[in-house]
Every structure is written in structure tokens, then in C-alpha cells.
Amino acid sequence: MYSGDFSTMPESRPIRDIAYDRLKHAIITGELPAGARIVETAFADQLHISRTPLREALRKLERDGLVEYVLRRGVVVRAFTLADIDEIFTIRNSMMMLLLPSIVERVTKADMNELRIILSEIDVALAESDFDAMAQLNRSFHRKIESLSDKKRILRVIDDQEEYITRFSAVTIASIERRANAHEEHKQMADALERRDLEELKRLFAHHLEESKQTCIAAVKNRGL
Amino acid sequence: MYSGDFSTMPESRPIRDIAYDRLKHAIITGELPAGARIVETAFADQLHISRTPLREALRKLERDGLVEYVLRRGVVVRAFTLADIDEIFTIRNSMMMLLLPSIVERVTKADMNELRIILSEIDVALAESDFDAMAQLNRSFHRKIESLSDKKRILRVIDDQEEYITRFSAVTIASIERRANAHEEHKQMADALERRDLEELKRLFAHHLEESKQTCIAAVKNRGL
DNA sequence: ATTCTGTATATTGTATACAGCTATACGGAA
DNA sequence: TTCCGTATAGCTGTATACAATATACAGAAT
């Protein structure tokens, strides 16, 4: 892993962004575990790039809070605690409550169609026990709803936080009863959205996120972070 | 501005961080206005540094959302809208509501003493019409209270947002009635905190931030952003 | 054995060099 | 004059080179 030659690709984006995505993915999936040191020369070699774009990627990750910088010692992947997970879900819930009014106001029939399609795809993934697909679709569902709002900065806060917990989505989905319940909740949320029932939506989202949080925390407690 | 030779300093921190702070300050104060293009070679020369650390600083600012990157054209300072200000205050208020319970729980006598000292210093600044000092002290007051919480991630969200509005604090303080009212509200907040009166604190903070927001928006509307 | 210290090695911090893209200016033709 | 193509200058993207610092390890002194 972390190998591959970028020089052959049609570079529409800077190499630093590709390196950034790659490292971020590795950290989020846990491939690069907490505490792992990122040695510039080693990673630059593996990615077949020079240190310059790699360092720029590291500076971004630093601001993201995914890695920690130590003077003259480089960067290490930061650790997560249960308290972090708790806060992340709390923030997300709180921000969602702020978004919902504008979402209810702005949702269109076309949006609902998109959501229904995603839900039916989750049906399939659930039936086929394709949990990777399900994790991705779940995220699409949430992102679609969030994107209906016009509050760009609030949306960004949610995005920033969500990055951190993507890593745990597999853990959460691994719970049999949770993945079925979550899907049911999603359907209810879509229904409430279609009715533009703000209060019900708030209730559903608060419940949904709380349940996800608890499942996530419980799973992490059992299997270690 | 943007000049100064770092090479003579005892460099306890990397140059890139110094450049980062410098640029951030310039952007926040409006010295570098929205839309201004940051040409790497020019700024590196002015700061008497090479492009490498400057670019790393720019990548951080990019993640902060303070500058915008355009492929092969470098970075430009991002613009702010009234909607941004509205969202920033909304986020801050919402996050504060999440922090207050732990703040009320954790506040000590020593903390209250610190807060009282800050308040008395604001008294002086107010009497002397030293608005720069007042802006800084106000911020210290808020930061002190926020720091009483142990919710690091929520605190960080607040910090991130506050950076953006620091730039408008002068605008807000310029309002005669607002600066006196704000100070009164601060005192009431300190009192409520000392009594560990959570509900009253929530009420006071919500009111305080709402008033600040309205003053800020009104001021920006009048004087332009 | 333990601790200190000097040296070699590894790694980060910064500068510079060079390649490639973009925009602009200029000149010529319609 | 206007349009278009080309040349040129300026700037970004990346690689490489060099400097400074930290770490590891071996050997000496206690």
C-alpha cells in the first residue's frame, strides 16, 4: 500500500492533493494506526513523489487534526478516544438541528426521488449483506439531506467531523440489529422530510444519531478502537 | 508589512508557522482584503524566506478556509458574506450551549477570580475608551470561560469559527451602546457562572451572542464588509 | 553494571533549480 | 478597428540539494 506511480496519470489535480487523499484514507480506515509515525522520505518514496508535495499534504492533515506535528520529529497519526467519538456525534447532532429548518424549506420532489433511490439501493445492499456498499450508501443518504441546506459553513463543520467517524462506520454496521434499525430510521426520516414535518424530523434525527453513537461507542469498547 | 528577517531569530518554531500566523493575521485584520491574490514569489521575498515554507503555510490556510486555491493560479483570499457572519454566530451559540453544562460543573474559585480580574480590566479599558484592549479582553473573557470545559473538539469548533469574526470585533465595539451592554452582560454571565446557574447562563449566552451578531451584521451592512 | 559522551546516521527544515502552464502583450491579417 | 495567433514573461508544481537537528549506538569513565 501507499505505492503507485502518479507521474503517468493525466494530472488534473496537484500531486499533493492526491497524496493528501491517500494519507487521509489510510488514516481514516485505520490502515495507518494511531501513533504511527509518518517518515517523509519513506512515504515519498513509496508514493513515487518528492517530499515537497508530501509535506504540503501533511500540513493539511495537520490542520485537519488527523496528525500531530512534533518539532523536528515530524508527524504522527493522532489517537482517538471514546470522548472524541461522543463529542463528534454531539456536534453533528447539534449542527443537524440547525440545518433542518432550511432543509425542510428547500427540499424538492427531485431531491426526494434521489433519496428514495438511495434507500432502495440500501435495501439491496442490506439483502446482499454488502456492508461496504451499505456504509457508503448510508453516508450518501446523509450527505444528500445535509446538502439540501444552504448553510455552507454549518455543513462544513459536519463534514469535518464526519471524516473522523467514517472510520467507525464498519464497526457500527457490523451490529445486526443496528443496521436494520438504522435503515428503518432512514426511511422514516425520508417520509418526514417529504411531509416537511420539521419537529418529527428533529426527533428522528436526534434519535438516529444517538443510537448510532451508542452502537459505535459500544462496538469500539468491545473491539478496541 | 510582511517584511522582517526570520533568519536571525532563535527559531523555536518552524518558519512555516511564523509565515502562517503572519498571513492569517493579515487576512483576519483585513490587511489582505478578500480577493487579494497571494503570489508566492512576491510574499516569500517580502518575508525573506523561500517558497517552500510559505507554500506549507498556504496549505494550512487553505484548510482553514481563509484562502481559496485555484489550479495553477495559486491562492486568493476568500470573501465573507453576511450569511457567513450569521452562520458563524449561530454555530458558536450552538456549541456554547453544549459546553455550558461541563463549564458549570468544572468552574473553580480560582477561575472566577481570573474572570473577575478580566472584567475589572475591561472596566478600565471601557473608561479609557481603549477599544483595542477591550476587544482583546472580551475575547480573553470568552476564551477563559470556554476553556473551563473539557470538550476539546467542541472547543476547537468554536475556536475555528471565532477566528473569522475576530476581524469584525472592532466594528462591533465601535457601537457605543453595544460595548456598554456587552460589558454588563459579561458581568451577569460571571455572576450566573459563580452561582452555577446553568439555565440562566444559557439564557444569558444566547442573548449575548444574538445581540453581538445583530450589532455585527448591522455594522457591516453600514460600513461594508 | 551504569552512565556519560562522542560520533555516525537518519530525518526534518529550508533553499534553490527547473519544468510546464497561464496570462498577457504584441504584431499582423481581415 | 477587431480578431487571432504567437512570443514572452510570470508564476506555479515538483524535484533535488544542502543545512541543521535529533536519535541511536558504541565505547570510555565511574
What Rg of chain A do the Cα atoms give?
19 Å
Main-sheet strand order of chain A equals 1-3-2
Name the pair of protein chains with the most residues at their interface, and give those residue counts.
A-B, 32 and 32 residues
- Average pLDDT of chain A, rounded to a whole number, is 91
Q: Can you count the beta strands of chain A? A: 3
Distance separating the two termini of chain A:
22 Å
| Beta strand % of chain A | under 5%
- Oligomer description: homodimer
Helix content of chain A: over 70%
What is the 3D form of chain A? globular
Low-pLDDT regions of chain A: 1-11
Count helical runs of chain A: 9
Highlighted features:
homodimer; 225 residues; mainly alpha; 3-stranded antiparallel beta sheet; 73% helix; globular; disordered N terminus; DNA-binding
What does this structure look like?
The structure is a homodimer of 225-residue chains. The first copy, chain A, is mainly α. Chain A is built from nine helices and three strands, in the order H-E-H-H-E-E-H-H-H-H-H-H. Chain A has a three-stranded antiparallel sheet. In chain A, helix 1 (15-28) packs across helix 3 (51-64), helix 5 (109-127) packs antiparallel against helix 6 and helix 8 packs antiparallel against helix 9. Chain A is globular and about 55 Å long. Residues 1-11 of chain A have low confidence and may be disordered. Chain A binds chain B through residues 12-14, 16, 52, 55-57, 59-60, 62-65, 71, 83-84, 87-88, 90-91, 94-95, 97-98, 151-154, 156-157, 161, and chain B through 12-14, 16, 52, 55-57, 59-60, 62-65, 71, 83-84, 87-88, 90-91, 94-95, 97-98, 151-154, 156-157, 161. Chain B binds a DNA duplex (30 and 30 nucleotides) through residues 11, 14-16, 39-42, 49-53, 55, 71-74.
